[in-house]
Amino acid sequence: MISIHCLGDIQYVTGSADRLFPSVSPPSLIMFYPRSYPDSLLKRVTPLVPFFRGGAALLVAILFLFLSSGPALAQVAVSPSTASGNTIASANTSDNIAVGADGTIYVAYHGGNGIQVVKSMDDGASFSSPVTVTSTNAEVEIDVSSNGAVYVAWVENDRLMVAKSMDGASTFAAAVDAAKLRSLSVHFATDGNNLYFVGREGTKVVVSNDGGQTFQEPPTGQSSIFSDILVDPISRDVIAQFDDPDVTYSVSTDFGTTFGTPITPSDDPYVYYSVGALSSGSQGRFLFVGGGIGSETYKIDLGKETSEIIPAPKAETSQGRSLAADEYGNVVTGYVENARVKFVVSQDLGATFGTPTTVSTTSIAQADINSTNGDVLFLYEENGDIFLRSYGERLRGYGLEVSRSTIDFGSVLLGETSGTESVIITNRTGATVNISSIETDAPFASTDACPTALAASESCEIDVSFSPTTSGGASGSLNINTDLPEGTRVVNLQGEASNEPPTIGTIAHQTITEDGTLGPLNFTVGDSQTAASDLVVTASSDNQDLVPDANITLAGTGADRTVEITPAAGKSGTATITLTVSDGTKSDNTTSETFTLTVTDVPDLAVTDGSPSGLDLTVNVDPGTDNNVVGMFTLSAGSVGATFEAVTLTNSAPGVAGVSVARLFASEDATLDVGTDTKLGEVDVDNSNAPASLAFTAFNEAVDTDTRYVILAIDVDAGASTSGMQFLLDKPSDLTVVGGELATVNGQATATFASLPLSGNVMALPVEMAGFTATPSGGTVELRWQTLTETGNAGFDVERRIGTGSWTSLTRVDGAGTTTEAQTYQFTDRDLPYEAEELTYRLRQVDVDGSESFTKEIVVTPSGARQMELLGTYPNPARTQATVRFAVPEDVSNARLVLYDLLGREVRTHSVSGAGRQQMTLNVDGLATGAYFLRLMGGGHVKTQKLTVVR
Fold first, then answer.
1. Lower CB count within 10 Å: N or C terminus of the chain?
2. What is the pLDDT of residue 91?
3. What is the pLDDT of residue 762?
4. pLDDT digits (tens, 9 = 90+) for 676-731
5. Average pLDDT over residues 369-391
6. What DSSP character marks residue 443?
7. What's the CATH fold of domain 76-391?
8. Which pLDDT tens digit goes with each residue over 753-773?
9. Cβ distance 577 to 600 under 8 Å?
10. Is 897:910 a contact under the CB 8 Å cutoff?
C-alpha cells in the first residue's frame, strides 16, 4: 500500500512503490528513492489517497508529479532571534554553509554579536547554540576540510584572518593574521591540511599547506578579479576562477605551490562577479559558472577547455544566486525571481533542468549539497534571522546513503598501513539494492560484510585503510557498485604519505692546525623506510675561503660513512660544516648535522740549506775520526709553538763504504760541540754499503724565533776513501715540524722545495770524473767517460741493469792509478738483451786499497726496429720449445708468425702485438721430427728462418 501525505507545502509518499507499479518503471520513477523522516514528522501527516495494484495511468502521473518535486523539511531556525540582527549577505558571494564528510552541516553568519558558527548533526532538523569566533562584524566564509577541521575566514582592516576549530566547531583557536588582502570578502577551499584563499582584489592567491600555521602567496600570472577557488575532491587539483570579464581559470596540481597558465575557454564565456561549482567524477570534470544579474550560466569542460551556456534561470539580484554540483552530474542553481528565492535541479550536468522550487520570500540565500544523503540545502535570511530548508530526493546517485562522503586518512608513514576508517551505507530506496562489488583504488583497501542484496532500510559497514607506497598526496575512491540506475555510489579517499626523515650521527666540534687534514671521521646514517645504501649524503661549508666544498671528501657505504676535510693551504679560521642525508624522495626528507671546524694559525717556518745560496758549508772528512760534519741546515719560526720532530736525509751516493754511524745535532750556532749541543738522533750504518737515506725520528725540538742549526755528522772508518757523498733535504714531507708551515727557503718566500743540498761541496773522490755518457748505436750501446784526476784508481767495473732488475758486471776497465792528467775510457756493450726496452748503466770505481764508489746512473733506450727482422731460433734443433726473436717497425700492423711444415701446411700461428723488438717462446711439442719453416709476415714483407724439430 502507498499513501501520499502533505504537510504545508511538503509532499511525500509512504509505502512500497513496487506494490503500485509491478511492471512500470519509467526513468523518473527509477530515479526516485523514498527516504525516512523523523517519527515526529510522520505522526503529523494524514493519509490522503490509497493506491492499489493496477491503478490508473492518471494516478501514475499524479504520483510522478509528487515524486519529482521531492519532500522538504520545514523551515528550521539556524540563528537565535536577536535585536542586533544576523546576516549572510555579502558584497559579492560567500559560502556561509559547509557540509562535513560525515554530513554535519556548519553555518557561519555575522551581526552585532560578531561572527558566529552553529552546526546540525541531524541533517538540518535542528542546530546547536552559536559559538562566537570573533567580535568583529565582517562578511564571513566557512569551510570544513576532509580531515574534519573547520575554518572560518574574513577580512579585517585589509588583513585576511583565519580561525580554526579541531573539535567540530565547539571551540575556535585565536584567529591567525594570514596575509594582506584588500577585499571586502574572501573565498576559500580546503583539502586536508591545505587551505586556498582568494579575494576580489585579484592580485594574489594565499596558500597554507600546514593547516593554517604558515601562509604563502604563489604567483598566478593573473590580476583580474578572483571570483572563486575550488578543489577537485578526486585529483585534489586546485582551480582558481576569475573573470575579467571573460571567465578564466588556472589549475594547480601541486597543492597550490604553482599555478598553470591562465586558461580562457575557446568560446569566451562572459560574466562579472561569478560564482562557481565543480563536478568531478566518472562523467568528466566540469566547472559551472554563474554570473551577476541577468548573466548566463556556463558549463566549462576542464578537459577540453571549452564552454557552453546551460539553460539555467537568470538571476534578478546578485545576493540570491548560488551554484552547487556533485560528482553524479547533479547541478543545483539558486536564483531570485519576483523577490523569491528559487532553485532548479539538473541531473544531467546542466543539459536540462526540472521544475523550479520556491524556498522563501527573500533575496539572500545560498545552496549546498549534502554528499552523504543527497539533500539539497538552502540557507537564507529573513528579517535578521537565518533559516535552513533541506530538500530530499531531488538528486540522482543517493539511493545509498553513506555516513561519510570523504575519508581523509591524514598523514601515514610511507610503507605502513593506517588504522581502518568505517563507512556505513544505508539503503534508502524502499526496495532491495543488489551490490555487485565494493572496490577501492590502490593504495587504499577495503573489507566489508555487506550482503549482495541490501534490503530496504538495511545498513552495512565497510572498513577502509591506506597503505602508501610513494611519497606525497594520494587520492582514490571507494566504489560501491549496485544495480541502481546511477550504478556506483562513490566515497572519496585521500591521504598523505609521510616519509620520516633519515637520521645522521653527530660529530663533535673539531680543531686542527693550519695545513692539516681532518679525518676521516666516522658517522652513521639510517632511515626506517629507506635502505641505508640508498641514502645520499652531501656536505657543505659556510666558509668557502677556508674550506671549499670541493675539499670535503665523503666515503663509506651503507650505514657507516666518513668525512675527510682538507682546508685551503695557508688558511686559518673557523667553518661550519653541514652534513646532510637525504632519502632521495622529497626536499623535506633530509636531516642535517653541523659541527665547527677550527683551523688554528701556525708559525711560518724558515729553512736555510748548506749550499752556496745558504750556509755554504764546506765539507772536510778525516778518515778514522768521528762526528765529521757533512751537512747542515737551519730552522726558525715567526712565533713560538712549532716543534721539530723528524727528518729524512737523502744520500746522493748510496752504497758507499766506510761510514759506520750518522748523528743529528741541534745547535745554537754553526759549530758542532758534541758536549753541549743536543743530539737529536743516531743511526748505525753498514760500513760496506751506505743507505740511500738516513731517517731520524722520535725527538722533540722547539722551533721559535731563534735560529736553530741542524747538523749532520758521520763516523768515517780509517782508510775509507770518503767516496764523494753529499746529503740532501729532498722534499718538504721529509721534514716534520708540527705546528708550523713552510714559508721561506734560503730567504725566498715559498712553501715547497726540492733537493736542498746540506753542503756546498761533495766529499772528495779519489777519482774526479769529468763526464759519463751512454749512446745507443744500432744493436749496441757505446759507453764513454773521462776523469780529470785519479788517486790510487785500480779501475772501473761497468755495470748494467735491465729494467728494474739486479745489477750485473759487464767488464773491468783498468784505471790509470794516480795521475793529474785527464783520462778517457770507453766500452761498447754488444750483447744487448734483444727485447730490452730500457737499460741502465753505472761505473763502480775501485781504489787500490779496495774502497769503492759509484757514478751516476744513465738510462738508455735501445734503438727501435727500423725494418722487419727475424733472427734464428734457439735451440735449433728443438725438442719441445724454441725461443724466437724478431722485430716489427712502427709502420707495420697486423704482423704474424707462422710455422709451416715441408708440405706448406700451417702448424703454428702467432699474432704479433705492437711494434719493436720482441722475444717469444714457440711451443713445438707434439710436432713430428723434421724440418719446418718459420715466417714473419706483415706490411708486404716476409722473413723466413728454418727450424728443425727432433724427438
1. C
2. 65
3. 65
4. 999 999 999 998 888 999 999 999 999 999 999 999 999 988 756 555 678 999 99
5. 92
6. T
7. Methylamine Dehydrogenase; Chain H (2.130.10)
8. 999 999 986 665 456 677 899
9. no
10. yes
Name residue 664's beta-bridge partners: 681, 712
Quick one: which H or E segment has residue 17? helix 17-20
Q: What is the pLDDT of residues 311-346, one digit of tens each?
A: 999 888 877 888 999 999 999 999 999 889 999 999
- Measured CA distances, 649 to 246, 634, 646, 734, 750 (Å): 89, 14, 10, 7, 20
Dmax over Cα atoms in the chain, in whole Å? 153
Residue-range domain boundaries for the chain: 2-69, 76-391, 400-498, 503-600, 604-757, 767-860, 869-949
Higher-pLDDT residue of 688 and 734 is 734
With residue 65 as reference, give the H or E element that holds it.
helix 57-69
- For the cut 70, the answer to whether the pLDDT of residue 111 exceeds it is yes
Choose between 416 and 768: higher pLDDT. Answer: 416
Burial code of 791-808, b = ≥16 C-beta within 10 A, e = fewer? bebbbbbbbbbbeeeebe
Q: Which CATH superfamily is domain 400-498 in?
A: Immunoglobulins (2.60.40.10)
Q: How far apart are CA 225 and CA 244, in angstroms?
A: 7
Q: Distance between CA 280 and CA 895 in Å, rounded?
A: 77
DSSP code of residue 617: P
Q: What's the CATH architecture for 869-949?
A: Sandwich (2.60)
**CATH-assigned architecture of domain 767-860:** Sandwich (2.60)
C-alpha cell, 384: 535578521
Mention every residue, 6+ apart, whose C-beta is less than 8 A from residue 755. Answer: 650, 728, 729, 730, 731
Instruction: Answer left, alpha or beta for residue 584, where phi above 0 means left and psi between -120 and 50 means alpha.
Output: left
Residue with cell 582584489: 201
Tell me if the bond preceding 22 is cis, omega within 30° of 0. no
Per-residue pLDDT band for 49 (boundaries 50, 70, 90) equals very low
The reported pLDDT for the residue numbered 204 is 81
CATH topology of domain 503-600: Immunoglobulin-like (2.60.40)
Fold match, 767-860 / 869-949? yes
| Residue closest to 636 by CA, chosen among 677, 605, 666 | 605
